TrEMBL record:
This is histidine kinase. It comes from Chryseobacterium populi. The chain crosses the membrane at residues 13-34, 296-316. Keywords: Kinase, Membrane, Phosphoprotein, Transferase, Transmembrane, Transmembrane helix. Its EC number is 2.7.13.3. Residues 347-568 form the Histidine kinase domain. GO terms for cellular component: plasma membrane. SUPFAM superfamilies: ATPase domain of HSP90 chaperone/DNA topoisomerase II/histidine kinase, Homodimeric domain of signal transducing histidine kinase. Gene3D superfamilies: 1.10.287.130, Histidine kinase-like ATPase, C-terminal domain. It comes from the Bacteria.
């Protein structure tokens, strides 16, 4: 075979392959849009959560800063005991608490973050408890312990018996220059002892005459009494200082506990948010990787399918070119055959129509010369058969030579009732040759003159009645005609033709008006014809803007009904 790829089975496989590729391309496009819409939506959701987690990370950073500020303000307050530092301390803690509240609100709407925070809580660190602690410590700070400078300790004065003594003190320094702290430290490290020394001399002058024998004993007694008194006072001061220190420790411990609790909360939130953010980043990277992989595979599959489709289209293009070339060659051959057919038909038209006309001339001469009625009846039948053959020849010639030409009516003025009567008179002998009874019901009014194509009307009646007679024998053919006015200048001719012949099968009724269609062929039917009769009848009826229909049952007869619209002539005298 010259073109093996034109094999039908191969073309069928290629055709289905092309359809499959197109379907796969549509599936790939659908998956692509699904990936971009659904997976893209997931990716966007994860990205939004990731951005929110970063915002939460910013809150923890701010919380850490507020915590450091609170710690610094507390240290300043412990040194200066300034209420402004204490107020700034509580202000920083409230900022810290606001940050915790924001994180808690997001925690309530995000179960995943909530689970992370719960997993990192080693103790019952809760924002509500932190707020309670702030309020409690704030109320406690409103009643701080007394400051030392606000309440100075005053030791009791020593009651002595030195009323008769006048006490004077004098301090003396040597000539060595006094050094500062660093200088004294340097001398101490190097072992030098040349430092400035100071001496204090206390002079007691008795205003009364002293008893020298008792002076020493009285001095010793006074000194012992002073030592005992001031030892007691120092012990009292130590107890007072210890009590004051305990109150301060208790006071500042409450602040320290609050900072420790806040630091714990910050640690919980920092670790949970970092873990949450890390999970989201991993999930985002994973989802993004999956989306990119799907895109890559889809684009690769699409490229492969498009390549296959291109090859298949090239195949079909090649096949189309080959078939186009073959079709052109076949068209050229058809044109040659049509030209040859037209030549043959022209020859048949010349060679066949002329003898038929001559036969009609001789029939008319014989009919005029003979007086035998039987012979005249035979001559009428022969003439009708010859005229029918001439009409059929003209129909075939007209149909084959003018298939593409516009059909039109050639109007003449004639009396409708007279024209139909002449057609009935001419065809009656032909119907009687098959021993059929011909019943005519003529409902056409007398004197109706129309301006239309009488030849087409003749062809219409001859074809339908001829077909009825052809397929009916020893039966009956009924012809019923009525008219109806449709306006002032038009009349409608309705014709119904019934026969009791062999009928038409239901499968053939729908095809009866197709050219060259003959339906069921029986050996009992002679002079079958070319199958153009009803096709030409339909064309003629359509030229009259009418309609035609056929109803039939096999072996029960056929009914053909048609309606044509005719122009009424305004010139009654000009009749054909």
């Amino acid at each position: 075979m010259k073109y093996k790829f034109l094999n039908f089975k191969l073309r069928k496989i290629v055709h289905y392959s092309l359809i499959l590729c197109v379907l796969l391309i549509q599936v790939i496009i659908a998956i692509f849009f699904y990936n971009e819409f659904v997976n893209g939506k997931k990716l966007k959701f994860i990205k939004n959560q990731l951005e929110e987690s970063r915002a939460l990370g910013g809150l923890t950073d701010n919380s850490r800063k507020d915590f450091v500020d609170a710690q610094n303000y507390l240290q300043k307050y412990m040194i200066s005991e300034d209420d402004k530092d204490l107020a700034l301390y509580f202000q920083s803690l409230r900022k810290l608490k606001d940050n915790f509240d924001k994180i808690s609100r997001y925690e309530n709407i995000n179960p995943r973050l909530k689970n992370n925070i719960e997993s990192h809580r080693k103790d019952a660190f809760k924002t509500a408890r932190f707020k309670t602690l702030i309020d409690s410590v704030y109320r406690y700070s409103l009643n701080p312990p007394a400051k030392i400078q606000d309440k100075e300790y005053e030791p009791e004065k020593f009651k002595n018996n030195f009323d008769n003594l006048n006490i004077q003190t004098h301090t003396f320094s040597d000539t060595i220059k006094k050094k500062g702290l660093m200088g004294r430290l340097k001398d101490a490290i190097s072992g030098k002892v040349n430092v400035q020394k100071e001496s204090t001399v206390i002079t007691l002058t008795n205003n009364k005459t002293a008893d020298l024998s008792n002076a020493k004993a009285e001095m010793n007694k006074a000194i012992k009494s002073m030592d005992k008194h001031y030892a007691t006072e120092v012990k009292k001061f130590q107890i007072y200082a210890a009590q004051n220190q305990q109150e301060n420790i208790k006071f500042y411990n409450s602040f320290s506990k609050l900072l420790i609790y806040g630091n714990g909360l910050i640690g919980v939130y920092e670790n949970a948010i970092e873990a949450f953010q890390s999970e989201l980043e991993k999930e985002y990277n994973k989802q993004s990787s999956i989306n990119n992989q799907i895109r890559t595979y889809l684009v690769l599959g699409l490229m492969i399918l498009m390549f296959i489709v291109s090859i298949l289209i090239m195949y079909f293009t090649r096949v189309a070119f080959i078939y186009e070339r073959k079709l052109n060659a076949a068209n050229d051959e058809i044109k040659k055959n049509l030209n040859f057919k037209n030549r043959i038909l022209g020859m048949l038209s010349h060679e066949l129509r002329s003898p038929l006309k001559i036969i009609n001339i001789f029939i008319d001469k014989i009919n005029r010369t003979t007086k035998d009625d039987t012979i005249k009846d035979y001559l009428k039948s022969i003439k009708f058969t010859n005229s029918t053959l001439l009409i059929q020849s003209n129909q075939i010639l007209e149909y084959t030579k003018n298939q593409d030409a516009d059909k039109k009516l050639v109007n003449t003025v004639f009396n409708l009732k007279d024209e139909i009567s002449s057609i009935v008179t001419a065809i009656t002998p032909y119907i009687e040759t098959r021993k059929n009874k011909f019943v005519v019901t003529d409902g056409i009014p007398v004197g109706v003159v129309v301006n239309t194509d009488n030849i087409k009307i003749n062809q219409l009646f001859m074809n339908i009645l001829g077909n009825a007679n052809k397929f009916t024998e020893n039966g009956q053919i009924d012809l019923a005609m009525t008219t109806e006015m449709i306006g002032d200048n038009k009349i409608s001719l309705a014709v119904i033709i019934n026969d009791t012949g062999i009928g038409i099968s239901e499968s053939d009724v729908g095809k009866i008006f197709e050219p060259y269609y003959q339906g069921m062929i029986s050996d009992e039917i002679d002079n079958l014809g070319a199958g153009l009769g009803l096709s030409l009848c339909k064309e003629i009826v359509e030229l009259f803007n009418g309609e035609i229909s056929v109803s039939s049952k096999l072996y029960k007869g056929t009914q053909v009904s048609f309606r044509i619209n005719l122009n009424i002539s305004t010139n009654d005298g000009a009749t054909h």
